[in-house]
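Folded chain entry —
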Amino acid sequence: MNNLLKGSLALATSRVIGGLNVNCTKFLLPLWITPMGYVTLRLLFGTAFFWLLAIFDKPDTSSTHDKVRLLLLGAVAVFGYMSLYAVGMSYTTPVNFAIFNATQPIWVFVISVFLHNERVTKGKVCGILMGFGGVVAASLASPVHDLASDRFLGNGIALVSALCYSIYLICSAGLLRRVSNLVMLRYTFLGATFSALSVSIFTGFSTPMFITHFNATAAMVFLLVLIFPTVVSYLLVPIGIKYLKTTLVAIYGYISLVVATVVSLLLGQDRFDIFLLIALLLICGGIYLVSVSERVRG
């Protein structure tokens, strides 16, 4: 299997899982678990799992400097992404959240232009602008008061969440040239867990589905979140980062948007209107334009 196919399959699988995670998270929050409880338990589980995998990994030869950078990346970018993801999801609908969270290629492209002299082409610019137009269209969608407590606030948080994940992608691309996939995951999750526990000391969190109102369905959904979006998906992402350019990695996030949209409508977690349809069409067009303009690292 060549590197392009390997990276593409890893990212496609990861993003399908990510799309389903949008619907699982909406189901769980905030009725069955608080956003901070959701984030803290995910990070604790992921950290424990990745450090246990160290038993089977080759000896760690990464420098102390790189480990510190990984810890900081996790404490800021990974924790920022997961916590904002959970908080934003508790305010808006799955489709709206997925649309705004799908702005990752825009952030990646803008940051890469300034930091890494990313090559600017007409196709990329047009694709990014179309994606931004999709975000604007989504913001004009009719508010769904019975499905979202504060859609505007949730959408804004989703936008910042996408920025955090974009920073994670860009920084990971550089670090993965020097450290292994598992080393990156171990230290970024450890840093993120430290942030989560530090915040939880002040905010606290509750998990009604396990304590006051045990619900087997909610517990099963959360178990799936721990296994697939938290572990499997994060194991697959570094494979894509190693073999594909960062902008293209971010574009694969649009798969999550499509999956989350279809599942949300089937489950009745969201409702469609003309602005959301326009948003999806614009974003899909943006995907095509940027992807055909992007060169893949072999």
